[in-house]
Design a protein that fits this description.
104 residues; alpha+beta; 45% helix
Length: 104
């Protein structure tokens, strides 16, 4: 899970749920950026591989080398994953308002 504060709410995001809302990009550049964001959100390699395998240009060895090359820091962060997923219907889960109020 990836927790953060947004508009006074503590928000819980699931990298797996978010990735599953995203279609696999046709171009390599966009695909790698989503993989980076997913990995940096705590995403699992097996989930990323399964998701990627639905793309037209999927190459198992290419996936492995790309995944291994992705570090945990850099300009691409989890926000890219959640922003992309939200365009396809993903919604974060509000956990608690900073003042202690629980969502209804």
């Amino acid at each position: 899970m990836y927790n953060h504060v947004h508009n006074g709410w503590i928000v819980e995001d699931s990298p797996v749920r978010a990735l599953m809302h995203c279609p696999v990009p046709e171009d390599r550049f966009s695909w790698v950026r989503l993989l980076m964001a997913f990995k940096r959100a705590g995403g699992d390699e097996a989930v990323a591989r399964e998701w990627s395998s639905h793309g037209d240009g999927y190459d198992p060895s290419g996936f492995t080398s790309t995944w291994k090359s992705i570090g945990m820091t850099g300009k691409i962060d989890p926000r890219l994953l959640y922003a992309t997923a939200s365009r396809y219907g993903y919604r974060s889960r509000k956990v608690m308002k900073l003042d202690g109020q629980v969502p209804r």
